[in-house]
Structures are given as C-alpha cells and as structure tokens.
C-alpha cells in the first residue's frame, strides 16, 4: 500500500510540474491590435502597457480596461450614419466603375479576338493561291494582282503580329 501512495504522489508532482509550465504564458496586444499568446516574452518593441499577462501575474481584464480607454481618447469617434452612408455610396460607385471597366475590357478582348480570326482567314485565302476578286468603282469584278496580294499578305502579317 505504501508503494502505491508513493506512485500517486510522484504522479501528482509530475502533473503539477507540467501544469505549472502552462501558467508561464505571456499575453500581449501586438501592433495590429490582436491578442498574442506565447511562452516566450513579447518583442522589445511592445510597450509594457500592452502586455496583459506575464508569468507570475494574473490576467485581469479590469486592469487592462483603463489602458484601452486611454487609447480610445486619442482615437476619433465612430463615423456617423451620414458618413457611413457616404462611404457606402462611394464604395458602391467605385465597384460599379470597376465592373463597367471590366465589361469594356472584356468587349475589347472579344472584338480583338474576332478581328484576329478574320485576319487569319483572310491570310489563308491570300496564301491559298486562288484568284481573289473585289468590286471596283463601277461595280465590276476586279481581280487582285500579285503585287496587291503581296501587299495584302504583308498587311495581314502586321495585323496578326498584334494578335499574339
């Protein structure tokens, strides 16, 4: 029996030692305003007023409340309803402008893709070697010459260079 009580005592002491390390925690508020928890001390850049808990000190939200209130004195008051509405309307107008711009860019991209496809088809027709005809001022059919064909091929190559 004596041996079992020694085992229990040893286990209890081990649990106490482990649990005591859990009390060695630091709690502070970082530059972004979020609470940080660590077993290491906060960086030196954190002022003492923002350290909420250190090993050996108990956590007390009432002690940190005056510090938070002191910080609020310097901060500006929350925006009024009119200011919030104005900000909302501004954000909504900006969003509408972004959507309009995106729609215009999408339309330009579709137009460019269509023009590039038309240029590719025309280039295939020019390079196929078949005779191409167009109507002149009098409404008569006129076939393009080899010089005109070469100029048209160069022009379509220039247009297609911008399609990549």
From TrEMBL:
<dbReference type="Pfam" id="PF13511">
    <property type="entry name" value="DUF4124"/>
</dbReference>
<feature type="compositionally biased region" description="Polar residues">
    <location>
        <begin position="118"/>
        <end position="136"/>
    </location>
</feature>
<keyword id="KW-0732">Signal</keyword>
<dbReference type="InterPro" id="IPR025392">
    <property type="entry name" value="DUF4124"/>
</dbReference>
<feature type="signal peptide">
    <location>
        <begin position="1"/>
        <end position="24"/>
    </location>
</feature>
<feature type="domain" description="DUF4124">
    <location>
        <begin position="13"/>
        <end position="67"/>
    </location>
</feature>
<feature type="compositionally biased region" description="Basic and acidic residues">
    <location>
        <begin position="137"/>
        <end position="150"/>
    </location>
</feature>
<protein>
    <submittedName>
        <fullName>Uncharacterized protein DUF4124</fullName>
    </submittedName>
</protein>
<feature type="compositionally biased region" description="Basic and acidic residues">
    <location>
        <begin position="84"/>
        <end position="117"/>
    </location>
</feature>
<feature type="region of interest" description="Disordered">
    <location>
        <begin position="34"/>
        <end position="150"/>
    </location>
</feature>
